[in-house]
Specification:
single chain, 207 residues, mainly alpha, Rossmann fold, three-stranded parallel β-sheet, 8 helices, 5 strands, 43% helix, 9% strand
């Protein structure tokens, strides 16, 4: 694996909601219809925003800053629909005095904004974004730096993720990994060898 690759250009909007990542399996009934409707609306908004039509028709022009806020809003709503039970899960870990950190390839500031908007900031002791350290996931130095900051033994650390990038990040750092299934990956569950696995944040994780 090449760890000297240049950083990819960061975008200020959230990761696109991937229908193939399994939202139909995670949602049912009105939740499924709502998530599907929001995803379609988000896609139409992006098409409108990127097309020349607003300028040709002189209608519906959206400048960058409001557009970013709209993208963020779409992403936050879908996040809560796709991952039910996340807040109560974090609350339980916090009550047990676990040290928690976020490790994302998104810009650190954007990641903090998302956590603040979703009222999850209080549960995390540290937030690392794609621009926090020299490298990004899956480079081993990323998780190693987080563990070093907490001054704990790596054997006591657990990285929970929903993609192959998260998996390789944990594997490269020699840290135990837990896969949140039906996340942002098209890889089969069997791909994530020697990993703990949970289908929902209400599942029990054995440390």
């Amino acid at each position: 694996m090449n760890f000297d690759q240049k950083k990819n250009n960061q975008t200020d909007d959230l990761e696109k909601f991937d229908e193939e990542s399994g939202f139909k399996k995670n949602l049912h009934g009105w939740n499924l219809k709502l998530a599907g409707g929001i995803a379609i609306t988000w896609s139409l908004f992006q098409l409108w925003y990127a097309s020349p039509l607003p300028f040709i028709l002189d209608f519906g022009k959206i400048i960058d800053i409001p557009a970013r806020a709209i993208h963020l809003a779409f992403g936050l709503i879908l996040c809560f629909l796709i991952y039910p039970g996340l807040k109560s899960f974090l609350k339980k870990l916090d009550e047990k005095n676990y040290k928690l950190a976020v490790c994302s390839n998104k810009l650190e500031e954007l990641t903090k904004i998302v956590l603040k908007k979703t009222k999850l900031s209080k549960y995390f002791d540290f937030v690392a974004g794609g621009d926090t350290f020299t490298h990004r996931k899956p480079h081993p130095s990323v998780l190693n730096n987080v563990v070093k900051k907490f001054k704990i033994n790596k054997k006591k650390a657990l990285f929970i993720g929903d993609s192959e990038h998260d998996y390789h990040s944990a594997k490269n750092s020699n840290i135990k990994f837990c896969l949140k299934t039906k996340g942002f990956t098209n890889k089969p569950v069997s791909y994530f060898n020697k990993s703990l696995k949970i289908k929902a944040y209400t599942d029990k994780i054995i440390f």
